[in-house]
Design goal:
Number of strands: 7
Order of helices and strands: EEHEEEEHEH
Mean pLDDT: 82
Distance between the termini: 47 Å
Shape: elongated
Largest sheet: 5 strands, mixed
Number of helices: 3
Low-confidence stretches: 120-124
Radius of gyration: 16 Å
Structural class: alpha+beta
Amino acid sequence: MKDNLENMDCGQIKISDDVVGIIAGLAATEVEGVAGMSGGIAGGIAEILGKKNLSKGVKVEVGEKETVIDLYIIVEYGAKIPEVSWQIQENVKKAIETMTGLKVLEVNIHVQGVNMNQNQEAEK
């Protein structure tokens, strides 16, 4: 695991990749239209992760002063994927830059599936 390392007059600040991943996961799930983070595709079906596993749907590469983030998400049925993706990118970039001071170079969105549960409940 790499750590972000910043030299300060009083010492150093280390930010773990996992911390950046959790911030990104939380910021992504705040966006309307996101059903959750994806833990990957098992048997052709995307698995939705719970709140405790947010960083598992996130891949983070942290350099000295910048980061690149890949998010694996599941969207709600009926959501406009380009709009949801743009909102995720903006929200994640803002959260990480504000909380860590790292410059976000890229936020790549990988849509792994569509959550149909709301649609099925409405039909019942």
